[in-house]
Amino acid sequence: MKEDSNKSDTNGFTRRKFLRGAGITTAGSVLLNTGLLAADFHSAPETGIYMGPDAVTVQMQINGQMEHLTIEPRTTLATALRDHAGLTGTKVVCDRGSCSACTVWIDGKPVNSCMTLAIDVGGREVTTIEGLAPGGNLHPVQEAFIEHDASQCGYCTPGMIMTCAHLLKENPNPTLEDVKIATRGNLCRCGTYPHVFKATLAAADKMK
Ligand code: FES
Ligand code: FES
After folding, report:
1. Does residue 132 contact residue 141 with C-beta atoms inside 8 Å?
2. Same domain for 81 and 162?
3. 152 lies in which domain range?
4. How many other C-beta atoms lie within 10 A of the C-beta of residue 2?
5. In terms of C-beta density within 10 A (0-12 exposed, 13-18 middle, 19 or more buried), how is residue 85 classed?
C-alpha cells in the first residue's frame, strides 16, 4: 500500500514540510553567500488541499520549455528531471541533501533538487546543467572546467558547475575566497577543488 506522503503525523509534521525545510537548509550555504533568502524560493502558499497518492500533472518551465510532467506527489525534482523529463545531467549522489551534486536553479536560484518536491515547483522556471548549454554551446564555466581539468569521476560536476555559474551571474568579479564560500556546500570526493576554483576564476575573466 502506498503511503500518503502529505499525511500529517500527530504533530502536524509532513514529509512535504520536511523536504521543504531540508532543501532550504542544504542550499543555504550558497543562498546565504549570494545574499538570497531561502524564503524567496519557498513562497508557495499552504492551500490545505492534499494531492495523491495517485499521479498528478505538474507544469513547469524547464530550460525555457514548458513541460507537463505526470508524477506522484512524492516525486522529488531530481527524479522528475531525470526519470520523467529525460534530463540525466542532474546527478543524484547522496539523495539526502548533504552533497549538492543535484543542484539546479529554480527561478535562477540554486537548490538541491533531491530535497525539493516537484509539485512545489509548479509554474516555476527550472534550469538544469543542460540548460547552460543551449544548442550545444557550452557556458564559459563548462568550458573552463574542461580546460582546467576540474572534473574526475564527474558525479559532483553538474552541481558544482550550476553553483559556480550562479556565483558568476551574481558576482562577475569573485575572489578566490568568494568561490570557496560559494562551493562550500558542494562535496567532491575526488578532491578537484583547486581545479574548480581555478576554472571558475578563469571563467569570470573570460566573461568580462
Ligand atoms: S544533495 Fe542532492 S544528491 Fe546530494
Ligand atoms: S569529480 Fe568525483 S566527486 Fe567530484
Report:
1. yes
2. no
3. 134-206
4. 9
5. buried
> Collapsing DSSP states into helix, strand and coil, what is residue 97?
coil
Pocket test for ligand 1, best of 29, 88, 98, 111 (most atoms within 8 A of CB): 98
- In this predicted model, what pLDDT tens digit does every residue of 91-138 receive, in sequence order? 999 999 999 999 999 999 999 999 999 999 999 999 999 999 999 999
Amino acid occupying residue 1: M
Mutate to test the pocket of ligand 1, among 30, 112, 183 (most ligand atoms within 8 A of CB): 112
Lining ligand 1 with CB less than 6 A are: 26, 92-95, 97-102, 112, 114
- Segment 27-37, tens digit of pLDDT: 443 343 333 33
Q: Are residues 124 and 146 in the same domain?
A: no
The β-bridge partners of 76 are 117
pTM of the model: 0.81
Task: Output the CA 159–ligand 1 centroid distance in Å.
Answer: 9
Q: Which residues make beta-bridge pairs with 60?
A: 67
Residue 123 and residue 30 in one domain: yes
Q: 116 and 161: one domain?
A: no
List pocket residues of ligand 2, CB cut-off 6 Å. Answer: 151-157, 188-190, 192
User: Is 10 within the bounds of a domain?
Assistant: no
